[in-house]
Amino acid sequence: MRKPKREVPGRCFPIHHSLLTIDYSSSTYCNPVRNLILILGDQLDSNSAAFDGFDATQDAVWMSEVREESTHVWSHKARIALFLSAMRHFAAELRERGFVVYYKRLFEHGYESLAAALVADVTELRPVRVILVEPGDFRVRESLLAALGAATVDVVLRGDRHFLVSLDEFRAWAKGRKEFRLEHFYRHFRRAQNVLMDGGEPAGGQWNFDRDNREAFGANGPGALPAPLRFEPDAITRDVLAMVAQRFAEHPGNLRHFDWPVTAAQAQEALHDFIEHRLVAFGAYQDAMWVDEPWLYHSRLAAALNLKLIDPRAVIEAAENAWRKGRAPLAAVEGFVRQILGWREYVRGLYWWRMPQYLADNALGAHEPLPHFYWTGDVEMRCMQQAISQTLEYGYAHHIQRLMVTGLYALLLGVRPDELHAWYLAVYVDAVEWVELPNTIGMSQYADGGFMASKPYCASGKYIQRMSNYCAGCRFDPGKSVGADACPFTTLYWDFLMRHEARFARHPRTALQWKNLARLSEDEKVAIRAQAAVLRAGPSPLGGNSTST
Predict the structure, then answer these.
(1) Are 259 and 230 in contact (CB under 8 A)?
(2) Which residues contact 245 (CB under 8 A, 6 or more apart)?
């Protein structure tokens, strides 16, 4: 990259204080821009490596809202609002610290993409260099680096130290491995990070308490649940909500429940609230589901973590301290830590190890379109109606609702993995591609052929019946695979086993499931295949139609 020619020191550049509540006027910054610090919408970390060496007399921050980031997938209104509100709050906080911030608001400029908006300002401001932390999204990284590569400016790309495991550390761990498994990664880096360790041994004498963390609620349900802390929208957030409601009216979801943390201070409050009131029961009931209960004992911290409003080290430390002080059982704390130091760090490494081919993976040859009811919740299956309607209402569903309800149905139906990926990326407020794509393509859909998970997560309607009360009152019977009241999950489960018998019948972790096919008669198999074909046909008998949107 060529270094730009510099103008005479002292040239003044305009500063537009569009986010300040007191002064909306323009002022001038009478020093040339040395470093232009690029901050993306999921990099709202005041301790970011992007700010290393920052000099407020010479350097400036650049942030921009662009339409492409809300429309490259059909984003939920609450997802759009969360990103924009958090970005505007972060910019305001930087200005309060005396930083010069160039900030472009959505619909107040004509640039569709981040790359176009950035290059326009680089051309005008002519900084010596642009500094950015490694973007989390492959698409964004490639477009920004390509655009900056064509500009006459030096580019400094820094690693993202928000994460506990750097990409170089992941590559060193991965080098030479024939298979990638979460448990191997998790144990290695728990030792390296000294998390939940007693000397050289895992706390409690075992690495994994997963068997203790699979309880379902009894017939009386979860009882009185501690409601999570809500954050009432302030003036900045209310402005964003009004704009999103007007400008993105056709997008899915609604905004009436918007109460997410949008600042680092709020994220810390949300962490404290979870540790004090819900961590104690999180482990046992993390896989449980219940009608009209969206939050249960879950933390609601994923969105704040993924926007970098809170450091994962602080989250892990708070959870471990709760156990060491006797305020939460080890099984609950270990299960929670595994979500962060385990899955979150693991999937990030896998994402960058396999991109860009990861997005095209389709090992099981799935080619069905995503059913339209994923966008509406108009479906008779009570479990799907609950999970999807909750998603559209709040922009949230917990991991078992995603993996073993909406994800499971798509797997059994044979939905194209890239279509399901686009839906998950669109509808959840915590969705960023580095974490969402491996969980969907690799774990949920087994589309990478076992690179991430050793077996497909396939189950019949009996699993949902065991882990929830969704089946009570549903017109479908999870014990039946054929007939008018047969559960579509159960029908499609047996159909899935038949379609993929050659691949999995001798797999050491799935052989028992496929062995059960032997108890079905040929007539039963024919009837199941026929009923599965009806489920795949459109318009769907389950509500809505079977075409994607």
Answers:
(1) yes
(2) 77, 255
- Is the dihedral angle over the CA atoms 495, 501, 505, 508 positive or is it negative? negative
| Cα 64 from chain centroid (whole Å) | 21
Residue 227 has which token pair?
Answer: 């409601």
10-residue mean pLDDT series, the chain (549 residues) = 34 38 36 92 97 96 97 97 98 97 95 95 95 97 95 94 97 92 95 95 95 92 94 98 98 97 98 98 97 97 98 98 97 97 97 96 97 97 98 98 98 98 98 98 96 93 97 96 97 97 86 87 96 84 45
Residue 207: CA count within 13 A, CB half-sphere? 14
What's 302-332 look like in SS3? HHHHHCCCCCHHHHHHHHHHHHHCCCCCHHH
Residues 6+ apart with CB under 8 A from 418: 359, 360, 362
For CA atoms 406, 344, 430, 83, give the dihedral sign.
Answer: negative
Specify the DSSP class assigned to residue 340: I
User: Tokens 């999570």 belong to which residue?
Assistant: 228
pTM exceeds 0.90, yes or no: yes
Angle at 85 between CA 259 and CA 122, to 5 degrees: 165
Structural Rg of the chain based on CA atoms: 25
End-to-end alpha-carbon separation of the chain, Å? 42
Omega before residue 539 within 30° of 0, cis: yes
Residue 445 gets the label, from left (phi > 0), alpha (psi -120 to 50) or beta, of alpha
196-232 tens-digit pLDDT: 999 999 999 999 999 889 999 999 999 999 999 999 9
Rounded to the nearest 10 degrees, the angle between the axes of helix 330-337 and helix 312-324 is 170
Reading the block at residue 492, the tokens are 């499609």
- Give per-residue burial for 144-182: e unless 16+ CB within 10 Å, then b: beebbeebebbbeeeebebbbbebebbeebeeeeeebeb
